Amino acid sequence: MKALRVRTDRHRRRLPAVALGIVILAAASSVTAPGAQAATAPSAAAAASVPARMPAIDPADVVAQAAGFPADLADALARDLDLTPEEYVARSEAAVAAAEVVESLGDQGVDVLDSRMDGSELVVNVAAQDDVPVVESAGAVAEVGEPAPKPDYSGIVLKPLADLVGGQGYTYATLNGSQRVNHVCSVAFNGVSRSTGQKQFLTAGHCLTSGRQDGGTLFEARQSAAGGAVTRGAAIGMPIESSFRFGGGVDAGLVATAPGWTPRSLVSTWGGSTGAVGQGNPVAITQTSPGIVGAPVCKSGRTTGWTCGEILELNFPTPVYNGGTGTPVIVNLTLTSACMLEGDSGSAAVIGNAGFGVGTAGSFAGSCNTASQPNAISAFFPLVTTDGSASVASALPDWQLQTGSPYGNDWSPLGNLEKASSSLKTTTFSGWTFDPDSANPVTIHVYVGGSYLTGAWGGIFEAKLPRPDVAAALPGAGGNRGFSIALPTKPGAVQYCLYAINIGAGGNTDLGCRTVASPTGAPFGNFESAQLNGTTVSLSGWAIDPDAAASIPVHVYVNGGWGGAFTASAPRPDVAAAYPDYGSAHGFVIPAVKVPVGTSTVCVYGLDVGGPVINSQLGCRTVSTGSGPPKGTIDSVTSAPGSIAVAGWALDPDTDAPVDVHVYVDNGWGGLTSASVSRPDVGRVFPGYGDKHGYSLTFKAVAGNHTVCAYAINLGPGVGNPQLGCRAVSVPGGDPFGNFEQVTRSGTKVTVQGWTIDPDTTGPLEVHFYVDTGWGGIVTANANRADVGRVYPAYGAQHGFAGTVNAPAGAKQVCAYAINVGSGTSNPKLGCIPIK
Fold first, then answer.
1. What is the DSSP secondary-structure string of 240-256?
2. CA-CA distance, 98 to 103, in Å (whole number)?
3. β pairing state of 426-434 and 414-422
4. Each residue of 755-796: pLDDT tens digit?
5. Could you report the per-residue pLDDT of 279-315, keeping only the tens digit for each?
6. H or E element: which one contains 59?
7. % of the chain exceeding 70 in pLDDT
């Protein structure tokens, strides 16, 4: 497997040294066997290129699969995980898929900090927010940042799961002085040597000791029930001494299976945890899984039978003491909450039907009672890992889990009909096949118009072409396993069926049936190049209508508008070599198609000349007489009472169309306008773009000093919306000002005259009058005062006031106040005039 960035060294914690003795394992050799990876058909385009996605698995959909689970495993699931078999299957399949999804995310460049299962849901911690959509598109939940702190297992002491008195699996004897000492370990999983085909079973590396009696032979360890006494049975195998490793991260070894034993891809049950190994319905192993934190895991062991839990931590490099003393060695272990007691070491751990690991050590003491020991754990040496840490797969690369044949089938031919295609003259089939029984090429029978029962005979062929991908995917298959079959094309849609003819055991294999139609449909080809020369572009490529060998017309469009009609009839020997039925007269070389200034999209279409009219786009190319971000400037920024005006020009070199200009005042929004005002000076400097590139915008503004910035909004492939400039401007404001000029009495009223202006606005103001200390009245300053307009032209002349207010007999003076409407802070007194 590819390296999977599930966690890095910065996420790992080292556990304290664990003293492990000679571990007594517990799984029966004759029924505990590996699940070889199923030999599915590879194709030339690797399926791994498709990003993995979490499946939606409903427990109701796996009822049939769960029905075959042993009763004691169902009991363990209910007791240890509060799960039904159906829920366990659903969660297990999700967990196996999750490891592939996390690996796929790593392949897509996602920085995976950690991952875990939350029930059937995959949770992935990522470093960046940008990775969240990728994780969610894979059907997982994304969490940004480091994961929450995990439980600290450093205080838990893992003790050896050894038993020198008895254990289910295999046994051998050594001498202690003159006394024979029996050792018992377990068969973990059965398998086969990739290079030699020898049957071998996997066990723990520390199980092998020196000084073995009986020529070093291992014998069957018979027991009547889980945890029962052991008696010696028939010879079970001979250790492959060079394969046994204990240390350097590894605890694994292989034993050559003795004659008379039939390795099977099963993990034994224990007859409801009360019977002997093999009594009850076993669990089939169909694949391996590296596991993921939170995945459900179950193990079958000689002491406790089936127990279940969840994966707590993956792949800890752990110091291990053989016998509890001396210098430790390092073994890579995965921690779980499943219970193992002494004598369970070497038990086979599974996630659903996937082999996961070999039981090694644990901290449960005396029983599996989690109420009294809630933090107890058990540790397994993994079959496979995806982060580069030690595993059975890395330590013993020649050993392969096996189901049935070495490729997981019944010895019938394996293969795949990968492609079926038809040209005007020839129908071609390609794929691969081989027979696990034989090194000879497999014969392929072809039937035309249906299956072998209904179709006509099409011929005999052999699969003997080089296929290194098959050899790489299926070691032992050999490289010359490909086939390419050519038959005369028949008119219309015809079904072809291919069969791989079996050699030896097994049966013939249906490689598949494909319905292939004689060529028809839309033209195809390639728009290969577009070369700009001033304001014209030359085009080249090729086009074929699959319905006919004749040359076909091609039409050109520029920015969606008509560009011209041409014929693809130029010689193209390379096209003829790829499509020999059609000849070479299918190239097009178009010397000059007119394009406007800026950036243009040029598209070429092949016209259908046979069958239904389905014209097809051969491709589009972008050409630019000029390109890049917009350019321009601010020519002026002026202010008036309550407003700012900005003017300038802007254009995008990718187009002659006007661009939008966005204006900001003091980093806040000011407004937008289109640069579409005539600017002949700009047109002279940029010929071909026209002169409609000026802009002018007036917008409201409060009094005070401001910074005005303008930005041209990009229309083409240029990057960014460039700033056209920034200018400082001051908008007038403050308290009103003016003059109270005259008071004239007329009976009990007085006539008042003057003028006033608020610098924040050109509008009129109210003037309030007070007679002596009492209220006099209001007059609006909106009368024409040409003299005022001449002095203050920005405000206009409509700022005079003339009106009457009440003035009782004896009143002595009138005072006038201008009422502020803008940024000023007071209503200033314009003056006081005595009443005469």
1. -GGG-EEETBEEEEEEE
2. 8
3. antiparallel
4. 999 999 999 999 999 999 899 999 999 999 999 999 999 899
5. 555 676 777 899 999 999 998 877 787 899 999 999 9
6. none
7. 85
Half-sphere exposure of 702 (CA within 13 A, CB side): 6
Positive/negative CA dihedral, 213, 219, 223, 226? positive
Task: Enumerate residues 6+ apart whose C-beta is below 8 A from 65.
Answer: 89
CB-CB contact of 734 with 759 (8 Å): yes
| Residue 711 CB neighbours (<10 A) | 21
Cβ atoms of residues 385 and 290 within 8 Å: yes
Q: Is 188 exposed, middle or buried (0-12, 13-18, 19+ CB in 10 A)?
A: buried
Length of the chain, please?
Answer: 836
Q: Are strands 190-193 and 141-144 parallel, antiparallel or unpaired?
A: unpaired
The pLDDT value given to residue 585: 96
What is the rounded distance in angstroms from the CA atom of residue 801 to the CA atom of residue 406? Answer: 109
- The CA angle 788-793-795, to the nearest 5 degrees, is 80
d(CA 822, CA 608): 72
For residue 726, give every residue at least 6 positions away whose Cβ sits within 8 Å of its Cβ, in sequence order, or none. 634, 707, 708, 709, 710
What is d(CA 830, CA 736) in angstroms, rounded to the nearest whole number? 9
Contact status, residue 342 vs residue 161, Cβ threshold 8 Å? yes
Residue 490, helix vs strand vs coil: coil
In 3D, which of 696, 540, 551, 552 has the Cα closest to residue 632? 696
* 36 or 806: which leads in pLDDT: 806
Based on DSSP, count helices (H) and strands (E) in the chain, helices before strands: 9, 54
**Structure tokens given for 552:** 């076909």
Q: How far apart are CA 738 and CA 734, in angstroms?
A: 13
Strands 159-160 and 660-665: unpaired
Rg (alpha carbons) of the chain, rounded to whole number? 44
Burial class (CB in 10 A: 0-12, 13-18, 19+), 565: exposed
Q: How far apart are CA 290 and CA 1, in angstroms?
A: 10
Indicate if the alpha-carbon torsion angle 370, 374, 376, 377 is positive or negative.
positive
Model pLDDT, residue 325: 60
Amino acid identity, position 709: C
Residue 411's pLDDT band (cuts 50, 70, 90): low
Burial of residue 615 (CB within 10 Å: 0-12, 13-18, 19+) is middle
The rounded distance, in Å, linking the Cα atoms of 77 and 126 is 32
Q: Measuring CA to CA, which residue among 6, 97, 110 is closest to residue 295?
A: 97
Q: Is the pLDDT of residue 39 over 60?
A: no
Per-residue model confidence as pLDDT tens digits over 377-402: 998 999 999 889 999 999 999 998 86
* Cβ–Cβ < 8 Å for 222, 279: no
In angstroms, rounded to a whole number, what is the distance separating the alpha carbons of residues 675 and 651?
8
Most confident of 274-278, 401-405, 777-781: 777-781
Pair 298, 313: CB distance under 8 Å: no
Residue in this structure with the two tokens 């405000």, named with its chain if needed: 795
Average pLDDT of the segment spanning 567-589:
94
d(CA 725, CA 709): 6
Cα torsion through 315, 319, 321, 325, rounded to 10 = -160
Q: How many other β-carbons are positioned within 10 Å of the β-carbon of residue 3? A: 12
Do 122 and 98 contact (CB within 8 A), yes or no? yes
pLDDT in tens, 438-472: 678 999 999 999 999 999 999 999 999 999 999 88
Q: Which helix (H) or strand (E) holds 585?
A: strand 585-594
**Mean pLDDT over residues 359-385, rounded?**
89
Question: 287-304 burial string, b = 16+ CB within 10 Å, else e?
Answer: bbbbbbbbbbbbbbbbbb
Whether 491 has a pLDDT exceeding 90, the answer reads no
Per DSSP, what are the bridge partners of residue 362? 159, 378
Nearest 5°: phi and psi at 592?
A: -155, 110
